[in-house]
Amino acid sequence: MKAHIKARSISATTWLTLSFLLTGAATTGTALAGAANNSLVVGTSQEPPNIYDPWATNNLAIASEINGYMNANLVSKDNNGDLYADIAATVPTLANGGYKLNKNAKGEVTSNSVTYTIRKDAKWSDGSAITPKDFQFWLKVEQDERVPVPSRDPFDKAKIAVVNADTFTITYDPPYLFADQAPPGVAPSVSMASAWNAFDSSTAKLDPKTNAKAINDGWVKFISGFTTSRNLPKVVAGPFKPTSWRAGNSLTMTRNPNYWRVPKGGADKYVQTVQYRFIPNTNTLKVNVLSGQIDALSAVGLTFDQGVDLQRSERSKYKTYFVPSATWEHIDINGFGGVQKVKDLDLDDKRIRQALLYSIDRAALTKALFQSKQQVSNTFVNPISKVYKKDAKDYTFDPAKAKALFAAAGWTPGSDGILAKGGKKFSLNFTTTAGNTTRERVQQILQAQWKAVGVQVNIQNFPSAVVFGTDFIGGGSNGKWDMLMYAWTADPSLEKGNLFSSTQIPTAANGYSGQNEPGWKNAEYDTLWTQANTEFDLAQRVKLFDKMQSLWAEDVPSLPLYFRVNVYTKVPALVNYTFSAYSLYPSWDAYEIGWGSKGAAETYTQK
Predict the structure, then answer these.
(1) Left if phi > 0, otherwise alpha if psi is -120 to 50, otherwise beta: which for 497?
(2) CA 324 to chain centre
(3) How many CB atoms lie within 10 A of CB 600?
(4) What angle do CA 158, 119, 93 make, to 5 degrees?
(5) From residue 493, how far is each of 388, 522, 546, 585, 597 by CA, in Å?
(6) What does residue 88 show for φ and ψ, rounded to 5 degrees?
(7) Contact 59, 468 (CB under 8 A)
(8) Is 408 helix (H, G, I), strand (E, B) or coil?
C-alpha cells in the first residue's frame, strides 16, 4: 500500500550545457522527446533503489509505476475501477462461474476460489509460454517466511490447483474479501528456478528471527541472479522490457514484441521506447518541462504549486492535470517504546501525538499551498472508499488544547519557550524526501506552528533512495527517525485496513518488512481488522471500519495531513497517458500509449 508524475524554445547547443547543469549528466545516447521517433520521455523526481521483482519487496511508488510498463496481471483495473482481462482470457465473475463463494449451513462464507484460464498467446519476453506453474512458483515464494514481502496476506494460506495446461484455481481459506479483484502475481519459474534453488539451499537452516540479515542478503543475491549487472530483469511479461539503466540519469524500456494485446491499428503506431529521466529536484524538473525535453511527467513528479504555475503559463505545447488520487500524505510518529528518545519524549503517549496534531493548522495549510483542492484527512482511509468514516475525530487547529495536553503529560515551557520535562527539551527531528519543494515548504510551516506551542523541530532530510531504503523507513525500532513525512498509495476499492495491523510492524526479526512503520499496536483494532477481512456484507464491514477508524483517530499513531491530487503534465498529442485513483499510475495500460500523429487511436481521455 503503503506510498507516493513539456515546449521547445532552446537551442541544441544551449540545451546540452543546460542538461549537464540540471541533471548532472550529458544526454548522449538518450531518447529524444517528442513523436519524431515514436518514443516517450517521462520525467520523475524519484529514482527507485531497484526496479523489479515479482513480489514487490520494493513498494516505492516510482518502482510500481515503472514496473507497470514491464508487468502483466491476470486481470487489472481501468480508470473507472472496472476489471479487464490481461493474462487471463476472461474476467472471472460470480455470473460466469469463474468466481465462487463457498458457504456453510449458516450462509457464512468459509472460503472462496477464482479460476483463471490463461490466454493461449500469453508469453514471457523471451518467447516462452506463461503457464500455471509460473503462478504456483510465485505463490510458493510469496508464502516463504524468508522472503521480505511487505505482507503475505491474503496469500499466506492460499492454494493453487492446476486444472489443465492453461487453467488453474486459487482457493482462499479463510476467504479473501477481494479475491475476484486482486489476483496472484506471476514469476518466470523456469528462468528463476536455479537462482531460487541456490537461495533455498543456502538459507534453509537459518532462523528468520535470528538470521534476518543473512537471509535478506541471500534474497538480494537471488534477485540479482535473475537480473543483469545493471539490475534489469532478464525476463518480463508486460508490454515493455528494460534495455538500459544509467544510475542517477535514466532508465530505458523498449516495446516487448511478445506481448499479446495489440492496440487498435497495430503496435507499430504506438510508442516503441519509453525512457524515464531521474531529476530529483522538482524545480529542475519543472525547467525540463518548460524547455521541452520531456513529453510527460510521472505521477511522482512536480509539486502542486509547480503544477499550478505550469497551468497558468500553459501553451499549446503541453497541458497540466490535477487528478484525484489514492495517495495519503501523512507524518509517522515513532511509537516504539524500546527506543530511548521515544520514551524520553513520551511519543508512545497518545496525548503527545494528539497535541502535535492539534498544534498544526492543516486547513490553512491546504488552502495556502493547494487552493483547498487537497482534502484534509482525519483517518488513513480514502474519502472515495465505501468504508470511509466521515465523522472521525477532527483535530481542528487548537493550540490551547495542544498546550493543555502537553501540560497534562508533564511538559511545561522553559525560559526559552521550549517545552521541557526532567531536564530534557521537547526536540524532534522531522524527516522527509530532500528536493521535494512542497514537502519542504510543509515542513517549514509546521515547524513554525509547532514552535508556537513550545515544540522544537529540527528538519533533517535525505534523498528518497535513503528515506525509502528498508533499513531507514522500516528502522523505527532502531530509532532511525522521530517524525517521517511521506505518502502511501493504494486502490481505495481494496481498503483492508492492514496498514496499521500489528502484524505489519517492521522489525529486525522480520527483515524490516511490513508497513506499520510507527509500530502501533491496538488489540481491539486487530480484532476488528481480522473480522473485516472476512466480512462480505458491505453494511457490516462499514460498521467494523467505523470502529477501526475511531480507534485509530483516537490514538493517531500518524498525523494525517491530506489526500493528494496527482499533478502531471503531458504533450496534448500524446494519447492514452492517463490515470485515476483506481488505476493508480499512467503506466496502467502502457501498451496503448502513443502519438496521434503516428496513428495511435485515443481510447482513454483524462478527465
Answers:
(1) left
(2) 15
(3) 24
(4) 55
(5) 11, 24, 16, 15, 36
(6) -70, 150
(7) no
(8) helix
The angle, 0 to 180 degrees and rounded to 10, between the axes of the packed helices 304-312 and 437-451 is: 120
Q: For residue 138, give every residue at least 6 positions away whose Cβ sits within 8 Å of its Cβ, in sequence order, or none.
A: 54, 55, 184, 185, 186, 187
Three cell numbers at 30? 538518450
Query: Residue 567 region, left (φ>0) first, then alpha (ψ -120 to 50), else beta?
Result: beta
Mean pLDDT rounded to a whole number for the chain: 89
* Burial call 17-46: b when 16+ CB within 10 Å, e when fewer: ebbeebbebebeebbebbbeebbbbbbbbb
| 316 — pLDDT class (breaks 50, 70, 90) | low
Instruction: Provide Rg for the chain, Cα atoms.
Output: 24
Q: What is the DSSP letter of 38?
A: T
Residue carrying C-alpha cell 531497484: 50
What is the 3-class SS of 117-148, one letter each residue? EECCCCECCCCCECCHHHHHHHHHHHHCCCCC
Cell 509460473 belongs to which residue?
134
Please tell me which residue, 56 or 550, carries the higher pLDDT value. 550
Distance CA 337, CA 339 (A): 5
Q: Which three cell numbers stand for residue 185?
A: 502475481
CA distances from 432 to 109, 136, 439, 460, 513 (A): 43, 39, 7, 7, 20
Question: Residue 28: its pLDDT value, please?
Answer: 34
Question: How far from 222 is each of 192, 195, 202, 218, CA to CA, in Å?
Answer: 8, 5, 11, 6
pLDDT per position as a tens digit, 243-279? 999 989 999 999 999 999 999 999 999 999 999 999 9
Q: Which tens digits make up the pLDDT trace of 449-473?
A: 999 999 999 999 999 889 988 889 9
Grid look-up 534474497 returns 219
C-alpha cell at 34: 517528442
Question: Distance between CA atoms of 472 and 474, rounded to whole angstroms?
Answer: 5
Q: Which three cell numbers, joined as nine digits, stand for 340?
A: 530511548
C-alpha count within 13 angstroms, C-beta hemisphere, residue 64: 21
Listed ranges 316-330, 500-514, 585-599; the one with the highest mean pLDDT = 585-599
- Show the CA angle centred on residue 474, arms to residues 383 and 456, nearest 5°: 80
Residue 327's DSSP bridge partners are: 489
Q: List the alpha helices (DSSP H) in 28-172.
A: 61-70, 132-143
Confidence of residue 31 (pLDDT cuts 50, 70, 90): low
CA 180 to chain centre: 21
